[in-house]
Amino acid sequence: TARIGSWEYDIDTGALHWSKGMYRLFGIPEGSPVKPELYLDYVIEEDRPVAERIVHHFRESQEPLEETIRIRPNSQVVTMRVKAVLLRDKQGRGKKTLGVNLDISEIKQLEQENLELRLDQQKGLLLAILEAQEEERRRISESLHNGIGQLLYATKLNLDQVARQVPESAVKRTEELLTEAINETSRVSHELVPIVLKEFGLEEALHDLCRRYDQSSFHIRCQVEGLEGRLESYLELALYRISQELVNNIVKHAQATEASLQFSRKRKQVVLQVRDNGRGFRYKKSETTGLGIRTIEDRVKLLNGSLAITSPKAGGSSITIKVPVEG
Fold first, then answer.
1. What is the mean pLDDT of residues 312-322?
2. C-alpha separations of 278 from 208, 214, 227, 274 in Å
3. Prediction pTM value
4. Which domain does 33 fall in, by range?
């Protein structure tokens, strides 16, 4: 049975009258003197601003009232919906406020359980996607290292032997190209399987990511704050892959000379912001965007986070991602 109480407040005299249901909601003996400030006595600390608004409404306002507030009449927290309407006299002046308080604790509990269930389902889906993608990356990385990488290295050894029999100028450029190909294969293999992330955590992995992209024609600054402990492994991996995709997009498409990657953790939220001084781009959620941005949007959504993109006409772009974390 829903617990409900009604009340009446006389604006002229300041007298407040409660029904039996109101006394039961607050756990107060029936007939005890009551006043609006009781909300301040029973409210939990997080909802004190709500209680102050309710008291102010009693004393000062002549407008309808609707608030949700949590009180602690005993050891249990009760969530109440407070609604009130104003009765006016013939001159339009407020005379009385009539209100009801409804206990919606069970509804709120069901909403919370439903939210937790949805979050668990999203987490499970994200884990499955990440695992499938990482398994494919591991397979490709092994093929690069054990297949193409070894083949390129063997070719270079054979070329070294041939180089002794022909003029140096004839093979020098070929050696340079082979060396470049071996280095590029090693770099790609490293990106596919981020060993630094697994061994040393997200902070060092982000710094390593920036170092590998930092070149003479392109400089990227990395700043990490508040990341004192490890996050859950799936979350670290997802955030690293998002960072990697963002930086890669800048290098490939932005024509930027400078960029910055800032990562911070503040209580129950992590914030990732990547900026560049490149040519910028048009972005509208309703329009089809590049595969990279769509992939990032999908991952952020699965993390129950938010993504904001700004790209002024003057150039440059800024992408900010906020993701909730536990503890």
1. 88
2. 22, 15, 29, 12
3. 0.53
4. 4-103
